[in-house]
Amino acid sequence: MGAVDQATTGGYLERYDEALARDPMSAFGLVREWMRTDWRALFAELRERRPIFVTPAFTVVTRFADVTEVLSREEVFSVRAFGPRLDAALGGPFMLGWDATPMNWRDKGLMQVMLDPRDAADVRGLAGRLADEALDAAWPYGRVEAVHELFRHVALGVCAEYFGFPGPDPQTLSRWTRAIVTDGFANFLGDPEIQAASVRAGSEMVEHLRGRLAERRAALRAGQDPPDDVFARLAGTALPAGIGVDDERIVINMAGLPLGFVESAPGAMTEATEQLLLRPQVLARAVEAAAGSDPARFDHYVWEALRFNPFFKLLPRLCERDHILAAGTPRRTAIPAGTLVLAAPASAMFDADVVAEPGEFRLGRPSHHHLFFGHGHHACLGVHLARVVICETVRRLLLRPGVRLLPPPEGRIVRAAGIFPDRFVLGLGSQGREG
To answer: Domain map of the chain by residue range?
Structure first.
């Protein structure tokens, strides 16, 4: 939700129970709508009254301890809820869609080496340069459409210059990622047209990368110096044959980089920016920190703002065998095999049993209370780099004078598929320039 003070009327469970008795499908629709519009109030009621919320279609887990249990127990709560869709799109197994298999461990280790945390300072500088380019272009107009002109511009630029994967062009790469991620994480009803679009996009992406890899290998054979990007590192890495990291694994892992970045990073930037702009006193302190000599001091504002509206509010898992969740506590609940479990990091980060005064905007919260990048086996591999890209882009935006929300409808976030920020127009400079 966009507003600072969200609905607190409660009574969600009574309305849900009444709808369930009358029409189970309407009850499912109610829950989906509440999660889009009143998620903080809904989760607050669930944490208090029904922290493990069992429905005929899925089970929602809302308390911090239970969310981290689900995300830490990959042998019980697997990613099979969405993994096969990613594999279908990319034409082969992708590490994000598998749990603790030899392929998963090997490819994770390989990509952790490629996404070197020591690159963070350079990547932060790259993000800042790309952000300033976009803001310079928008400045004469007194406004910026922040999602595409700024946030996705930065993300796609990082893909091009740091990952070494510009796509045929930024628009095509953006289209590919949106199609695949929509099917994997927003196609709740299994719409076959969305699935088919994902497979088409993935096939085009993989075929393009095969051609790019062949070009990279030919350049290496010709003695040309490779660029210093992740693709070049992968193409130039020699590993023992028995490890089995062949060219197809390189292509699929390269395809996975924008899938884990081009939607989530701009999404996080959009949500954090809106939350800061909604709090004038906090915004003034954030702008002061942004102008300081230590950018990391500003970063705390981004993460606390994002806690109030994280991009990914639910992480789907499939219960592979009967399991007692929250055993030894009053929340103890039997989860049957085959249950779709929705772990709610957005709710967990407001659990007062763990997060002190969760309704207050407070800097310096422990980093292990932040679940923006997942938790456990599938936590983000490139977290060190994603953090600096998100924070530096928002910092460069707030360094511009007069950044502000515009009156509705322009100043509202418009979303695609109910999840992905797709339009968010901000004012820049002095009032009255955007007429």
So the answer is: 51-427
Residue 271 sits at φ, ψ, to 5 deg, of -65, -45
Task: Name every residue whose Cβ is closer than 8 Å to that of residue 415 and which is 6 or more positions away in sequence.
Answer: 421, 422
Vertex 20: Cα angle to 19 and 21 (nearest 5): 90
Q: What is the pLDDT of residues 230-273, one digit of tens each?
A: 999 999 888 888 887 899 999 999 999 999 999 999 999 999 99
Strands 340-343 and 59-61, how do they pair?
Answer: parallel
Supply the mean pLDDT for the chain: 93
What angle (nearest 5°) sits at the alpha carbon of residue 180, between those of residues 175 and 181? Answer: 100
Q: What is the mean pLDDT of residues 118-141?
A: 98
Kindly indicate whether the domain formed by 51-427 is annotated with CATH number 1.10.630.10.
yes
Residue 433 has pLDDT above 80, yes or no: no
Q: pTM score, two decimals? A: 0.94
What would the DSSP string read from start to end of 104-148? HHHHHHHHHHHS-GGGHHHHHHHHHHHHHHHHHHHGGGTEEEIII
DSSP state of 293: S
CA distance 154 to 185: 23
